[in-house]
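Exam prep: given the inputs below (a chain plus 5'-O-[(L-methionyl)-sulphamoyl]adenosine), describe the expected output before reading on.
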Amino acid sequence: MADKRNSKDRFFYVTTPIYYVNDKPHIGHAYTTVIADSIARFKRLSGFKVFFSTGTDEHGLKIEKEANARGISPKDLADRVHIKFKELFGLLSISYDRFIRTTDEDHIKTVQHAFSALIRKGDIYLSEYEGWYCTPCETFLTKKSLIDGSCPQCGRPASKIKEESYFLKLSKYEKRLAAYIENHSGFIKPPFRKSEVLSFIKEGLNDLSISRTSFSWGISVPGNDKHVIYVWFDALLNYLSAIGFEEFQEKGKNNFNSFFKTANHIVGKDILKFHAVYWPVMLFALGLPLPKTIFAHGWWLMDSKKMSKSLGNVIDPVYLINSYGADALRFYLLREITLGLDGDFNMNNFVTRYNSELANDLGNLVSRITAMLQKYTGGFPPGQEVGADCGLIKNVLDITANLNGRYDNYDFARILDDTFKFINRVNKYINDTAPWKINISEQEGKRNLHKILRSAVVSVYCISYLIYPFMPGASAKINKMLNIEAFEFFKFPVAAKDILKSCGALLKDGRKINENRDILFPRITGDNKQ
Ligand code: MSP
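Solution:
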């Protein structure tokens, strides 16, 4: 599977935000997690040592209020709701290495450790906060930023608060952060988000309030348990605890250092400021390196409005998976909008894309090629000696030559576009060469037919490889139909000889393709269309 020659020193750490447990997950949570899962799968396939973390953000006033409203304890609420996220991620085949909860023991230690270290350093100090707060967004707001007394982000009323609070010295790191962002072009992606963050910093950074005294659901400030630590200070540190920061502090060795500097934090644009401003300052103060990339994607909207529980326009991902399959949802989320931009979730588009690209283009291609193999060669893919159509195979080489860069830029749109263009090329190749018209009573015709079939089956194998990060279920089904181990001969970057060798796998021990053929994507008809 992975390229063992290189995996020794190539690390890749990818994270999703940790999600609030005030409510069950919706399509937006599925989206971020599917993006992270796809890149994690691609990197593993390319020989990287990958650590993929996701999880839940369980402290803070918002959770305490929701628990009170339900008449249960905040920990009970977190215990119930975090399971819903795990269930969704299981259904979606999310290949995470750790599901971190901010109530986990090692995370609590990490947060208290960091807080104490920064007090000792003088980067955290005690004072008083007087200002505004939005509980749904767990954000401190200035009076100037309010719109008619409400939060500029979610539009809900903000509350005025005045209480003793610890502060983090953001102002001390303002210039260093601006310079870092200016000088590291890949730090904030997509590139157009960089100027947005820089202009926020250049307006001037006020020290950030990082503790509260008016409620109790959170991690206590070490040595002053009147205060609970601000939920965002707590939550951002999950990126350290998830990869063993505590163990690293105690024993001095694990892969913490190697992983952290390769971190790719995938977030929605709504929380970019926390990740691109507050988080780097915390890391500067702690003397740690910054993550490699913060990628902010856009929002899924419903009729151009943000989805929210209060508007009642939230789409339930579990329902879509149960109706159409996990791969169908993963595909729609990644294919419909270019990563970074906003888009409308539209059921008609979902069905149209599914039927035309998955059922028709991809599903039919696999089914006609496996059927032809059964019919013409008794299910045995023709051997290497018959050769393959270089023009067709070259398309795969062109795609894979750019693959690494495209993944690093989160250009999933181009990757999927290229892949579906190739799928259609193979369909056209079969139509143009029309194997069913070839006169196989002649030696020449037979050789020609075998060459076409071999080119087609190698192409299907390559397609399975290309779609694997996005649709792992469909890819596994194709491999099962072809009766092959997953990608045993692919190395990155893929070379022509690897592709041809992969056919060696198809022929190993005179291996026959599977007689049982699954329908990859059954068409959605009027009967099963919602
Ligand atoms: N707990 C914080 C994150 C802490 S990370 C250290 C939080 N949680 S959240 O439950 O509100 O999740 C927000 C994230 O969910 C967004 O940044 C985005 O990744 C995803 N989405 C939630 N709704 C979304 C859409 N409508 N569209 C796309 N993604 C959105 O913020």
